Amino acid sequence: MKKLIENRKLHTAFTGFTLIELIIVVATIVIIMILAVPTYSNYSIRTKVGESMYFVTAVKSAADVACREDGAKTLLSNQRVGYKFKKSKYVNNIILSGTCDAAIIEVITQATGAKPNPVLTMTGKFAKDADQFTWTCVSSGLNIHAPKTCQS
Predict the structure, then answer these.
(1) Predicted confidence band at 7 (pLDDT cuts at 50, 70, 90)?
(2) CB 63 within 8 A of CB 81
(3) Cβ–Cβ < 8 Å for 104, 122
(4) What DSSP string runs through the chain?
(5) Which residue has the higher pLDDT, 129 or 74?
(6) How far is 98 from 101, CA to CA, in rounded Å?
C-alpha cells in the first residue's frame, strides 16, 4: 500500500508544465521565427528572380548564333535572332537590343516579392577571336535578391 501511494505521488509530480516553462518555450519559438522569416523571404525572392537566368540562356544562345553567322548585324532584337519570349510567372519580359559589339539583354521580373521587382541588365561583347560573347550582369534591386552572377 505504501509503495502504491509513493508511485501515485511520483506520477502526479510530473504530469504537466508550469507557466514559466510554457513561456520559455513560446519565447524560444518566437525568437527562432524572428530570425528565420527574413532569411527565408530573401531566399524565396532570390529563387524567383533566379528563374530568369534559365530564360536568359536561350536568348544568349540566339544572340551568339546570330553574331557568328553575321557579325556585322547592326541591330540585335528578339525578332532578328529568332527568339520569342513567353511570359512566365516571375519573368514579365526579356528584351534583346544593341549590336554584336554591345549587346544588351534586359530581364523584367514580376511577382517576386521584392519591392520593387528587380530588373536584370546583361551587357555583352562578341569577341570575334573567341567566337563567343562575354557577358556581365547588374541588377536594379538589392544584391541579396539578385542571382550570384548579377551581384556587385
Answers:
(1) low
(2) yes
(3) yes
(4) -HHHHHHHHHHHHTSS--HHHHHHHHHHHHHHHHHHHHHHHHHHHHHHHHHHHHHHHHHHHHHHHHHHH-TT-S---TTTTT------SSEEEEEEEE-SSSEEEEEEE-SSS-SSPPEEEEEEEEETTTTEEEEEEEESS-GGGS-GGG--
(5) 129
(6) 8
Alpha-carbon separation of residue 97 from 35, 42, 113, 138 (angstroms)? 42, 30, 27, 16
Dist. CA 57–CA 96, nearest whole Å: 12
Over the stretch 71-95, which tens digit does the pLDDT of each residue have?
Answer: 666 789 999 999 999 999 999 999 9
Amino acid type, 46: R
First to last CA, the chain: 77
Residue 11 has pLDDT above 60, yes or no: no
For residue 147, is the peptide bond before it cis, meaning its omega torsion is within 30 degrees of 0? no
Nearest to 143 by CA among 106, 126, 118: 118
Going from the N-terminus, what domains does the chain have, and what CATH number goes with each? 2-150 (3.30.700.10)
